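ok posting inputs for the LBFN2T5F job
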Amino acid sequence: MRFLKGHGTENDFVILPDPDGELDLPATLVARICDRRAGVGADGVLRVVRTKQVPEVAGQQAEWFMDYRNADGGMAEMCGNGSRVFARYLVDAGLEGPGEFAIATRGGTRLVRVEPDGEITVEMGKPAVLGSSVTTVGGHEYEGVHVDVGNPHLACSIGDPVVQLDLTHQPTFDPAVFPAGVNIELFNAVGPSRAVMRVFERGSGETRSCGTGAVATAVAAAALSGETTGTWTIEVTGGTLTVVLDEETSYLRGPAVIVASGELMLAE
Ligand SMILES: N[C@@H](CCC[C@H](N)C(=O)O)C(=O)O
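and the output
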């Protein structure tokens, strides 16, 4: 099985080209591929399949479907960094031209644009603010904003420096609010339009970046000053992302690179 490896601000993915939808990809195989010692190692898998081959998304107006899986093999609706890496692969492979095109995701169709400097912008849709909830990290309880970016987030502005947090264990969350689990962002607002964020992702643990989480963080950070729009710089462990919030939608911009390709020996 051919694979490629790529990342967006060090949120890393194994890319599996499967244009005709022939690949059987059970959760156990995804988990083995993502294993950082016994597999290739990644935060998730991006299966590249023609939209028309997948009944659940076949109605979307996009040639290619990003079948995203978390490192534990679970499916998620959307992945912001993965969308950029997916777009980078499509352009590098000559499957889409450079410029603007749509991709299908479980969270709906997303427009992507390759910028002149090589960064990629993804239109992320209008984030939904659904109230507040709490999490406990290292014995400290933090309140945050429940934001849906296609997938669920709890974005918490905290007084403690995020660099000091211990995110080696699953933070607590309220299963009544998040019955399907949640991605948890902890952030410090460090300027008028800038925040430093760490994240514990559903199905992947702490990652060095999360694109949907950066959008959720921008929404929560803006809300602190009573705003719903603006351009935010989100510093993550693996780099820097830019989030634009406007009245109708949101945009995520950042780098996306392919770093390797090869032949996968793992099989079910
Ligand atoms: N890293 C991603 C989000 C991946 C999905 C998430 N773990 C979930 O389960 O919702 C991003 O860049 O958005």
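notes: Residues 9 and 142 are 26 Å apart (CA to CA). Residues 11, 70, 76, 79-82, 151, 183, 201-204, 207, 210-212 surround LBFN2T5F (CB under 6 Å).
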